[in-house]
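On to my pick:
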Amino acid sequence: MGARRKGRELAVQALYQIEITGEVSPVALRAFWEQSEAGANAKGFAAALVAGVCEQQERIDALISRSSEHWRFERMSRVDVNVLRVATYELLQGAVPLSVAIDEAIEIARRFGSGESAMFVNGILDQVATQLGIKIAVIRAQDA
């Protein structure tokens, strides 16, 4: 597993821990990073994602809420929400292509979420991307 995927997974886990415990102090985060079995690059990437999500959480949560027509935000799985937060933050930053953000989020949702998480995350992120005006370029092979 690459450092960026591991970093995304760690970010989801750290955000979940923050949400469950309500503890976002540097001491709590430092303890989380120290107990994590990952390399320095993955931890650094995760820490940047967590900081960015925390800084922009209100905006991120609003985008997710508006993208989930039939789901109240409060009723969503906390794992799914944190996967969505990380991917939405990455989309807002424009640091990765839409397809990468969605693929990574789907794989993390499969690993940590329920049986329906991957499909749910995919649908919500598609709507988030639409709200942000991000499009996937579709290339079709032409008949010769």
Remarks:
- Residues 3-21 form the longest helix (19 residues).
- The chain has seven helices and no strands.
